[in-house]
């Protein structure tokens, strides 16, 4: 979220909080468009359909002869095609449905959920298909994040590039858009991933799995907030959920609003933005498409959409609730997705930008440590983007082709029964190089080094130091002077490395301190000229006990030969937070940093280009002057263990979409999938002994 570093853009950028960009044109259009793979009502199912926990509405599934044609008025209760409404994807029929949620609204009102269902056109009413569910706050008929003043109503365009280029309807998938409570056509108050939204996700999955046109197998797909709902589903394991694809999620929404109790710069604007999205109306006017009149949203939809506007306690309540800064509070404990996910075996395919300025990788390791199912992922130095997004120059924003193919292969395996590729990670480093490995972070070796003492006055105000109209240069470093001393009161430098040395996972610090204030810790890559580039940072209140512990964010960074690692601690001018400075002296008497190190000798290269955002990050994260600190430790004290070798097979994609359109192609499709299964699945190996978990003044260590 660029509003974290550019104030003038802040008012606009906060509206994009946790919101994915508008659908981009996919550069890779090779997703399978094979014929539908469906099952009749009499055919055996891949899994027993679960008993529903909710009662769906009485809207019938349209039979082929009931679907309106281009010459008739569209009727969403009978089914609407693309010819009648361009918002409907080609090859699909759109209907609306309503179902109850099992958890009442905050005021006791029952919650009615709305779903837009997109079925493959031309199927018999009893043809059963697997379901891909997209559930979140961005699916309103009026627009994803604001009232777009549309000429006519229709299902959301969100993730349309994936739906169209993935050939979902031709392959026999049904797509369901499920509005969370308070959004779109669902009633109730916005709940910020609380028990209400958790119940909504369960209701959508179980309803979709038990529908008469469903095989009973549901996959969830999303980015940002509708990737968070996928993590909720994975944690709660509703009957029928078979796989989750989560792009750039927030792993714990506490970490999105607070850093160890310190408010993030978007702490209030995020909630304001979502309250605005929840207030979006239904479309109350008809439209005309090629001479066919498109009716407005139904009265039922419009009434539900107006719930937040007619219940002002919704917005006031969530604004008040999210003021709780203690991670252990009842409000945030109820939203601890990682805790609920413990032991889940639902397969997960994720993406994560290490350099994200929006949904940063905080809490990712805790979540992955908690679950037991297979995990695949793409991770690298990009911002808040989808796997198939391209920039204005046609470059893939993650730098790697094949996203839609790999997602199709993932869903085909877990929803259609195709051969499953082994879990695998495609990882891009800070030099733009891609490699494959079977798990993340893989095998690492911990190195602990003493920290230099230092003393500073806690004056840092972070984003609050900026004036309302003050311009900044896009960097991470706020308004404080930038010189060899202001980079940090405590500066600890390693000797230059002789061989490429990777940081992979979470570094941690333990500080013995006196005084009251905020400690801002940063790791830097120092080039041979002495100029540092920021790798990762963290802030926490200095603990009154005299010992402050903090885990830095998850990191993936390679130090090239001749480069050194710098650790700094001091007051914060970072624009990521809004701390309340103590104006008192903080003394760091001593401390240690623990680093997860990895060699690069076992790397298995794979195809891919540098993410375009990498050059932007490296420019914004570069401290403008050299440092003068003397080296005091070496990263070679303990030799890093090589990363686990993925394979000696020549580089290739993780998998190819492989559901064939005819029996004659079945062998070829299966072979493509098996050829894509390059990696040997191994259980994630964490750094040496597990990092100690504890609590400090700012909440749990991370």
UniProtKB/TrEMBL annotation:
GO terms for molecular function: dipeptidyl-peptidase activity. Keywords: Hydrolase, Membrane, Signal, Transmembrane, Transmembrane helix. Residues 27-89 are annotated as: Disordered. The chain crosses the membrane at residues 663-682. It comes from Microbacterium testaceum (strain StLB037). NCBIfam families: CocE_NonD (TIGR00976). The keyword Transmembrane applies. Residues 57-71 have a biased composition (Low complexity). This is Predicted acyl esterase.
């Amino acid at each position: 979220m660029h509003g974290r570093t550019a104030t003038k853009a802040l008012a606009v950028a906060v509206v994009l909080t946790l919101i994915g960009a508008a659908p981009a044109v996919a550069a890779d259009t090779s997703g399978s468009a094979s014929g539908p793979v469906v099952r009749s009502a009499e055919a055996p199912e891949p899994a027993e359909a679960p008993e529903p926990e909710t009662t769906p509405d009485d809207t019938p599934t349209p039979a082929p002869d009931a679907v309106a044609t281009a010459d008739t008025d569209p009727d969403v209760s009978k089914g609407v095609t693309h010819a009648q409404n361009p918002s409907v994807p080609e090859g699909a029929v759109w209907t609306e449905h309503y179902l109850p949620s099992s958890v009442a609204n905050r005021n006791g009102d029952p919650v009615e959920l709305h779903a837009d269902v997109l079925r493959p056109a031309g199927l018999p009413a009893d043809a059963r298909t697997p379901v891909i569910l997209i559930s979140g706050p961005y699916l309103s008929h009026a627009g994803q994040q604001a009232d777009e003043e549309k000429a006519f109503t229709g299902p959301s365009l969100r993730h349309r590039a994936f739906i169209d280029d993935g050939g979902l309807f031709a392959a026999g998938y049904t797509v369901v858009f499920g509005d969370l409570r308070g959004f779109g056509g669902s009633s109730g108050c916005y709940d910020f991933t609380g028990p209400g939204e958790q119940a909504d996700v369960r209701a959508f999955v179980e309803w979709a799995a038990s529908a008469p046109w469903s095989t009973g197998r549901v996959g969830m797909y999303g980015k940002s907030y509708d990737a968070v709902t996928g993590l909720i589903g994975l944690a709660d394991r509703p009957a029928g959920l078979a796989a989750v694809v989560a792009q750039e999620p927030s792993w714990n929404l506490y970490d999105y609003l607070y850093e160890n109790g310190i408010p993030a710069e978007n702490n209030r604007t995020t909630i304001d933005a979502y309250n605005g999205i929840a207030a979006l109306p239904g479309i109350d006017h008809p439209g005309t498409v090629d001479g066919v009149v498109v009716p407005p949203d139904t009265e039922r939809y419009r009434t539900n959409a107006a719930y937040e506007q007619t219940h002002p306690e919704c917005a006031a309540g969530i604004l008040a609730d999210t003021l709780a800064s203690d991670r252990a509070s009842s409000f945030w404990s109820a939203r601890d997705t990682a805790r609920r996910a413990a032991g889940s075996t639902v397969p997960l395919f994720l993406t994560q930008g290490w350099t994200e300025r929006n949904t940063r990788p905080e809490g990712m390791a805790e979540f992955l440590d908690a679950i037991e199912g297979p995990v695949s992922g793409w991770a690298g130095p990009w911002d808040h983007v989808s796997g198939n997004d391209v920039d204005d120059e046609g470059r893939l924003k993650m730098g790697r082709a094949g996203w839609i193919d790999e997602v199709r292969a993932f869903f085909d395996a877990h929803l259609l029964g195709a051969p499953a590729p082994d879990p695998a990670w495609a990882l891009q480093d800070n030099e733009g190089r891609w490699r494959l490995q079977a798990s993340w972070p893989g095998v690492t070796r911990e190195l602990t080094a003493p920290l230099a003492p230092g003393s500073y006055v806690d004056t840092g105000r972070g984003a609050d130091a900026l004036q309302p109209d003050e311009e900044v240069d896009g960097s991470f470093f706020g308004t404080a002077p930038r010189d060899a001393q202001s980079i940090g009161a405590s500066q600890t430098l390693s000797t230059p490395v002789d061989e490429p040395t990777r940081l992979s996972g979470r570094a941690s610090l333990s500080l013995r301190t006196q005084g009251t204030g905020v400690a801002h810790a940063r790791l830097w890559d120092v080039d041979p000229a002495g100029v540092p580039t920021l790798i990762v940072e963290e802030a926490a209140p200095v603990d009154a006990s005299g010992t402050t512990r903090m885990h830095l964010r998850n990191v993936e960074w390679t130090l090239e030969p001749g480069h050194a690692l710098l650790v700094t601690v001091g007051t914060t001018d970072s624009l990521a937070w809004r701390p309340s400075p103590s104006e008192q002296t903080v003394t760091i008497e001593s401390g240690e940093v623990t680093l997860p190190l990895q060699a690069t000798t076992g790397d298995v290269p794979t195809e891919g280009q540098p993410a375009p955002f990498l050059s932007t990050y490296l420019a914004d994260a570069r401290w403008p002057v050299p440092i003068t600190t003397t080296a005091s430790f070496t990263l070679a004290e303990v030799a890093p263990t090589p990363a686990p070798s993925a394979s000696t097979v020549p580089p290739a994609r993780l998998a190819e979409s492989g559901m064939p359109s005819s029996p004659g192609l079945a062998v070829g499709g299966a072979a493509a999938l098996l050829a894509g299964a390059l990696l040997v699945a191994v259980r994630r190996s964490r750094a040496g002994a597990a990092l100690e978990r504890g609590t400090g003044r700012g909440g749990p260590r991370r």
